[in-house]
Amino acid sequence: MKVRVSRAFSFLTLILGVTGILASVIYFSNYDANIALVNKVNTSTSTDFSNYDANIALVNKVNTSTSTDFSNYDANIALVNKVNIGTIKIDLRVIVIVYNRAHSVLRLLESLNRADYENDNVKLEVWIDRSINGTVDPLTEQTAREFRFRHGAYDVIVHPQNVGIYGQWLSTWNPNNNPQEIAVILEDDLEVSLHFYKYLKLVHSKYDHYPEINGFALQGLSIHHGVKTWQSFINYTDGQCVYLYPVLGTWGFSPSRKNWVRFLDWYAEARNTSDFKPDVPGNVATSWYNTFLAQGKTNTMWSMWHIHFAWMHNEYTLYPNFKDHQGLTTNWMEPGLHYKANSSRQSNPLLETWEPGYENMPALPARLDIDGNVSSPPILNS
Q: What pTM, to 2 d.p., does this model score?
């Protein structure tokens, strides 16, 4: 088996691909406060939250600090446990996170309306973050509220205060409420394939029982993470339509529930350890994190914590491997937190046609290392 490196893209595009994996300027001082709100939203199917105002008041009582030590984390978790848990079965929860790009979120929402959900019970949630000063982009909110989702329940949730990318990623899904549901987190500059849910149902059904698989990436294009190979894309060519890779993909990510719970629990403690750094030897993400550390901007890279946790526990993310880097998502790489300039084109083509052979996924997907080489043997514990 051989892994070939594709260098068909310019260095500029490579830089864009790298920065797409990271979250840029974020502020996560109010992360804990948002935990309480997510439980209320995730357990309701209407936008009439009868206890919403009371809950926000409680949240503000629990966490009024703007420091990053999260001293009230445990108190807020206790509050979360008191929130009523809904009983309505949800097969798929789609979480869209957005700040101030109305045109981007509309494009994503329209692609979600075109997708095939196989008549399953779907819940679509749009989470809108506030600025540091507490303001909400009016056009983004208006666009989200005027959208009509044709396939199930739909909610627009405006965070009560700024939570940043950390809060958007780590507090908008409560994996404990409905253990059977599939959740997927989508940033607003993405677009989904018609077949993204068919793929998610298949891979969750086939691989959820593997403890080493921490989730499922939807992107068709990803860089290597070796310090000498990161300026090239993974191009696994052994015929399998999926492979395992040690680093998650953030252009659409569907966590494995048990792994996500363990990660969140670990992160809640690790972030309070003053001398701890989530380094990973040989991974280029470590040098990026250390650069941010020197600049006082370590809060701009939430994914480093997940990368470290996956490395520490020998976990992998499952990636699609379709022809020509077709993905279940594509990234428009627009100006915002992730990019400084508009690339005016998609990162990769979307998967347009679902072939019956895709459902014959390998019981033991190939495992690649951070340089894209196939690890041996590709054995997982079930």
A: 0.79
